[in-house]
Specification:
The chain has 337 residues and is of the alpha/beta class. Helix content is 32%, strand content 21%. The chain has three domains: 1-66, Carboxypeptidase Inhibitor, Chain A (2-Layer Sandwich), CATH 3.30.1040; 67-206 and 218-269, P-loop containing nucleotide triphosphate hydrolases (Rossmann fold, 3-Layer(aba) Sandwich), CATH 3.40.50; 275-336, no CATH class.
């Protein structure tokens, strides 16, 4: 397909090439082969310079950043990623300790800045970054990843490792629309055991040594190996332009090779709600309601009282606390009782 159009008085030709690749769904051995489509866009400009093309691309990026929705891709095995658009989430809606919040927001903003790729090229390091979020479920790790992608106006990929093997995960990373944020949630709980250095060997040893076969023995089940995962994250031919976020509830179970600098450049602990974050959550839930019945200064005073009554060391997650406050919409005084 070809499309001819103008921008700022210049003529452009956009060519869209669609390629189909036959794939087999690893999660359904009895299913028929499927076809995944990949698109390649070729943009040409009439004239002797590429400056109009760069100007047009910058214009598209600016328009994209002004959108109110975020492109989210959920990736399972070799199936085409499921895409949906969700409302963007501002970093200001993520309730963290202020110092931790500033550290994460500043680091992510710097990575996605216009000068970041040039900086990495100049110093000879791949343009990519990795975070490890640790903490119990419900503490806001997923929300934080969504907010980071929203603030940068880049796509968000959530990859389900339990459906992946080395080859399929490599294909996913190769086809990423960069720059982007890539999330590997609960990396310690992957059923394929990517943290286990003996995963491949164990798969090979599942065949009964005493069995006899009329033909060749069956092939061992393909798994995602630790070596394969490490190579995909930061191998010589690894993808660049993405911020990789791994999350875990059990950081001690991870292989040290996975969390070294270059793979997990920063480790952030996202813990239970504190007195400080409880006050932030209270203000956010009640203060940002367009239908609120109380003045902002009243809500702030109630938030301070809520914080004073909150346990110094709690086992309450941010999600649970937000849910509690939401049940008292327009009744912040009742939330204190």
């Amino acid at each position: 397909m070809e499309e001819l159009f103008t921008h700022n008085g210049k003529w452009f030709l956009l060519e869209v090439k669609v390629a189909e690749k036959e794939t087999k769904d690893a999660t359904c051995p009895d299913c028929s082969d499927t076809y995944n489509q990949s698109r390649r866009l070729i943009l040409r400009c009439f004239g002797g310079t590429t400056a109009p093309i760069h100007a047009f691309i910058d214009h598209c990026i600016k328009l994209s950043s002004q959108e109110d929705t975020l492109a989210v891709y959920e990736v399972l095995s070799t199936r085409s990623p499921f895409q949906k658009r969700v409302p963007k989430r501002a970093m200001s809606t993520v309730d963290l300790e202020p110092e931790l919040w500033r550290d994460i927001a500043s680091d992510a903003k710097d990575f996605f800045s216009s000068s970041s790729k040039r900086f990495h090229d100049n110093i000879g390091t791949p343009y990519r970054r990795g975070y490890l979020f640790t903490g119990p479920p419900g503490t806001g790790k997923t929300s934080l990843a969504t907010a980071i992608a929203s603030e940068a106006s880049v796509p968000l990929y959530t990859i389900f490792l339990s459906t992946m093997d080395d080859e399929s995960l490599s294909d996913v990373f190769r086809d990423l629309q960069t720059p982007c944020v890539v999330v590997l949630e609960d990396i310690d709980c992957s059923s394929t055991g990517p943290m286990n250095r003996e995963a491949v060997l164990a798969a090979r040893n599942t065949i009964d040594a005493n069995a006899t076969w009329a033909s060749d023995p069956p092939e061992p089940k393909k798994v995602l190996t630790l070596g394969g995962l490490l190579n995909i994250i930061d191998g010589v031919s690894g993808t660049t332009g993405h911020l990789l976020i791994m999350s875990t509830n059990a950081p001690k179970s991870l292989d040290p090779a996975l969390i070294r600098v270059g793979r997990a450049d920063r480790v952030f602990e996202i813990g239970f709600a504190t007195k400080v974050t409880a006050e932030l959550t209270f203000r956010r839930i009640f203060g940002r309601d367009d239908c609120r019945r109380h003045r902002v200064d009243t809500i702030n005073r109630l938030a301070k009282a809520f914080s004073d009554n909150f346990p110094r060391q709690s086992t309450i997650t941010t999600a649970k606390l937000a849910g509690y406050c939401s049940t008292y919409r327009n009744r912040p005084d009742k939330a204190l009782e």
